[in-house]
Every structure is written in C-alpha cells, then in structure tokens.
Amino acid sequence: LMLQAISSALNSGAEDDARDGLEIFVEIADTQPKFLKKHVHALVHALVSVASAPSLEEATRHLAFECMLTLSESAPAMCRKIDGFAPAVIPLALHMMLELEGDTPDELDEWEKAAFGEDTSEISDYDVGSEALDRFAVALGGKLCLPIILEQVGQLAQSADWKRRHAALMAISQAGEGCSKQLSRQLGAVVAMVVANLADAHARVRWASVNTIGQMCTDFGPQLQETYHSQLLPALCAAMDDGSMRVQGHAASAIINFCEHTTRETLEPYLEALLGKLLLLLQRNVRHVQEQAVTAVASIADVADGSFAPFYDTFVPGLIAILSSAQGKEMHMLRGKAMECVSLIGLAVGREKFEPHAVAVMDAMLSSQVGGQLAPDDPQLSFMLQASARICKCLGDGFVPYLAHVVPPLLKSAQADPGLELTDADEGVENDDDEEADGRETVTVTIPGVGNKRISIRTSALEEKATACSMLTTYAQELRAGFFPYVREVASVLGELVSFEYMEDVRIAAGQALPELVRSAALAHEQDAAGATSELVQQLLHFALEKLTVQMADDPDVPTCGALTEVASSLVELSVEHASARLSDAQLAELCKTLAQLLGESFERRQEHEQALLADRTADDDDEDEEEVPADEETLLSQIVECIGQGLKAYHSPFLALLSSSILPRVQALLAPERSASDRTAAMCVFDDIIEHCSADGGSAPFVTLGTPVLIQYATDESASVRQAAVYGLGVLAQHAGAAFTDEQCRRACAALVAVVTAPTARDD
Known about the structure:
Blueprint: H1 2-11, H2 15-31, H3 40-51, H4 58-74, H5 76-80, H6 85-96, H7 105-114, H8 125-140, H9 142-157, H10 162-175, H11 180-183, H12 187-196, H13 203-220, H14 223-239, H15 245-260, H16 264-267, H17 271-282, H18 287-304, H19 312-325, H20 332-349, H21 351-366, H22 379-395, H23 403-414, E1 421-424, H24 432-437, E2 440-447, E3 451-458, H25 459-479, H26 487-497, H27 504-526, H28 534-554, H29 558-577, H30 585-616, H31 631-659, H32 664-669, H33 677-694, H34 701-714, H35 720-736, H36 743-758
Antiparallel strand pairs: 1-3, 2-3
C-alpha cells in the first residue's frame, strides 16, 4: 500500500508527498529493516526506478537512493541475497557520478576557484553517486561489489569522454575502503592505471588521479607505500608542476596521505625532490596551495625525523616569517598550519637544532592571543595549543618559562561554556543554518510528559575543552616536576570535567590528566620543591581516584568506562614508582568494588546482546555481520584486566584478597572453552599476574592448582593470543610457583611447549 501511494503521488506530480513516503521507508530501513523483508524485492525495484528516473526532481531521486543505502547498511546480508541488487545500484551510482562541470574554459575556471573558498553548492547527483559507491562497498563487501565495479571501471577508463575517465578513477577511490581485501590483490594494475592518468589532457581527470593516489595511500597503507613508492612519489612530484593550481595543491595533499603510513627508510631517498617541489609551492603565494604545501612539509618532517635536519634552515625561517607577517582572517588557517609545521620540524630535529629559533616561534605564536584576539572558532587556537605541546616535548624543561603564557588560556578553554539551550521544537527552526555556521548542533527529542524539545549546543566549545585537557596532560607529562606550580589549579578544573556529561572526549581527556598531576606532585616532593608535601600527594591521589571511580560506575558509555579504567590503572601504577602515592586499603577496596561493578554490568550487556542475536537469527538469515562479543566490551574487559594486573603488581596478595569474592569467580567463568578467544586470553592474563606477583608471600598457591591444567590445555589452542597468554603463564609458573608447580605438571607443560614450537603453523602468527 505504501509503495502504491508513492507511485500514485509520483504519477500525479505530487513529489513532495512521494518524498514524505520515501522518508518513512528510510526510517523503517534504518530501525526495523526486517519489517521490509517480505516485500524487499518489490521495494528495491521501485526505488531503483525512482532513483534512475531523469524526469523526477533531484531531491526525490536522492531520497530513493538513500533508502537503498540505509537498507544495505542495516541489513547487508538480506541485500546481498536480492537478485540483481548490486548489479543495479552500482552502475546507477557511477552514472550519477558523470554529472560534472568542466567542459568549457569558464567552467574549469570556476572549478579552479572553488578550491579557494567554501563550497556553497547544493548536493548534486555526483555527490550522491560518489558517496553511494563508498557506502555500498562498505555495506555489501568487496567480494560482491568489486567485480561489478572493475567491469564498469574498465569500460569507463577507455572512454574519450573525460567525465567517464574521471568516474573510473573516483570509483577506485570510493570503493577502496569497502573492497580493500579484494582490491589489494590487484594493486599493481590499479596503480599503473591511476598513475598513467596523471598525464590526462583534462585537469579534472588529473585531479581525480591525484585524489585516488591519496585515498589509496590511506586505504592500502603501508603495503602500498612499501611496494609502489618508486611509482607514486615521482608521479606526485611531477603533479606539483601541473598547470592547474588545484592539481598542484592536491598533489601536496596526497603527500600527506602517503606519509601517514610510511617509514623514514622509504621516504628518505625522495626528501630532496619532494621538499624542493614543496618549497616552490610555498613561494607561489597562492594561499590554498601554500596551506597544503605547509602541511605536506609537516608530514614529511614527522616521518623523516632527524633526516630532516639538512632542510631545516631552508624552511624554518620562512615559516617564522609566515607566523609574523600573515595577517587577516583569511590567513588564519595558513598561520595555524605553519605553527603545526614548525613544531613538527622542531620535534624531528631535536632541541639542540631548534632551540635557537624557539623563542621567535613561541613569541610569534603567543602574539596571536595578546588581548584575547583569538575567537573560540579561530582555527589558529587548536593549532597553537597542539604546536605548543610539541615544542614542550622538544625543549623539555626549557619550556617551563612559557607555562605562564600557555596554561591560563588552556584553563580558560577547559572551562568554555558549551552554551546548552533547550527550547520548544518549533522555535528557531528558521535559524538552523545560522546555528550551524556558529558551530552549534541541534537535535529534536521527545521528552515524556513534556513534548518535543530542541537541544542546541556549541560543539566548537566541546572540542575546545577536550583539546585543552589533552594539552594540559601533555605539559604535565613532559615537564613532570616542572609543572608542579600549576598542579592544584589544573586538578581542580579537570577533576570536575571527569563527569562532564555532554562529551565523552572531554571526560576521557580530563581523566587522563589526573595521574600525570599526581606524578608531578610526587616528583616535586622527592625533589623537595616548595609546597610539595606527601600530604598534598595523598590529597591529589584521593581526589583523582574518587573522581574516577564515581564516573566509572556511573558513565553510560562503555568506551569511556574503559578509558577511565585505563586511567585508574595508571594511578595504581604510580604506587610502584612513588612511595608517597601508595593507595590505602580503603581506596583499594573501593577500586575493586568499582571494577566488580563494571565486570558485572558488562556480563549483563553481553547476555542481552547474545539473546538479541538469538532472537534475530532465523533459518535463512546470515549472521556474518554480527559480533559475538561487541568490540567495546572486549576492550573494557582488557582494561579491567590491566587494572587488576597493576594492583597485583603493586600490592601483591593483599590486593588478591580483595578480588576473591566479587571478581575472580567471573574471571574463572571466562576460561570456559565456549568463551571467545579474547575472553579466555583476558582470564589467563589475570591468573598469570596472580602467579607472577603473589607467589613470594604464598598467596598464589590455590591458583597454581586451579590454573595450571588450564594453561597447559590452552597452550596449544587455535588462537595465537590464547596460546601466548598460556605459555607466558607456564613460564611464570616455573619461575615463581616453586614446589606448588609439581614435576608432573612441569613435564606436561614442557610437552605442550614442544608441541607449540614444532607445530607447522608455529611461525604464522
């Protein structure tokens, strides 16, 4: 009936009504795709017809495409089974990618200029088709999609029409992520085809070739860089001499992609050629090209490390000149990228080479914020904060004099008001575009008993807070005792942000600072710094642990719980390094109570997940897209295990006693053969730590009896991670367990180890 209603609306020219119906299908496909299963063939046939009808408005065709995309992402197994689905939608996406401008000199000139300003154009057929190809490949997989894509690419690449050649290249670029496994087997031929198109007569095709190289560097790195650097880097050097400035800038951008997954050894032979071309781009005084070139130099310096030293004097004075002379709002991004570049160069070449220029660099950067000149959304702010942190790493204690300039603005940023607003759903709708331009995001929610409300928040402030917390952590981490004068003030601000409810990144970044602040105070105490008492260290330790355990117990986000658990591990680890940072019995008990709660809640979520999987599975459904154990739960478990291990290492059998009743029974349950490899690995790591750290005082004796048969059994498991944990455990048994590790157990363990090292697959993992 719904399909009939949409068809009737389209036949009568009422496309607005048809789009309302299509939006309902998008919602159903997203939330309840199995509801559509009985009629999915008819639905897909109708959607393909709508999406490919040139007489319909773009918005209608795009919405039909979105419905098919959403369905493929929500129910990929179901879509793979639909006869003709992929062979219909992939060519359709490629056909939409032919809608490009660039046939006349004026259109090409307009395309060139588009690189230098914001793209204000509406979403086009090309945009929809390009995004669709990416999403279909990711959702349906390369095994199904790549043969269809390559058949189409082969035809398009040979065409005399530049738009078809452009589409062929962009198809490779867009499909790389979803088809990476299959496409990686054909990289040689693909690289040859892409590089050959750098000589194409049309600038947009050359741009597409550069774009594809950059995307492939991301999708197939580091294999691509290791194998094909001799083809790619000279080609990109040549592209930086292209007659199109947009191609020049994009070639520099592709260098950035290449550097993300390469090594110093691979890059070193090309440094002189690459940096020579980039220097010319910097001197051409074309801002967009300069921005890309500066970032490319930064990426090269980051990889080249000390090998960048011969080029230091060529670039650093010019970068300082940009920092000092580039004025005006339109130059803010270039100045920010110059900050990034000079700081990465400083890190690469080291303190001795960089220190003579450090004062000029810091003064030029800090001049930006004199009198509060930087607006919260100024791109220079983020670049400056991160550049200062890198310079701190480079200079070490030589950076301490600059703390008075960088810490206050960071604390101000950490306390930035996100501007949360709650209004009626129909208020301010006409201002949505203005809010988006101001860095705000708005969502409409239904509150029981209240109705529909609009919640608006300034996301730029959230990002500013998270960045500030991270930078303060870096300063404390690098300067250690040198950061002590700021420890109390920073702790009071960041401690409150551990429970900041509007952004997980803020909570995590604030939490990560706390162990570094305690460490700074402990080191200052050991160095007899003024005001650095053992009582202060204990106050900070108590404050930090309380903030962490409370939030760990309450946080609704599983990854955040895991990250904060990792922070708690770092706090416990301080006990080994610093006598003043020892936790009390009460604090250890509270930590164990929180870990037990996290473990119990994780088990409950896993059980719910397993029940949901069981309910969803039917005889004709594929389950290849479902996770048996959610990745977030696996990560959380590993972080809980790490925290337990740190506690055992620092406090030995007294800590073990705190685990016995609430945590160890759950850990033991993870050893069952039917549990996942990650579960069994985690459980054995706990037993390994018990044996290693609790044998000297006899606390491990009961666990030697319990754990030894399990370790021997799993030493020959199919999973490499399980085998590794098991054989490590056998080693610590022999080293620490003494007489509790019997001769018979030792013989069986040796036999298992021999089987491991002589297995045909012993060197595979």
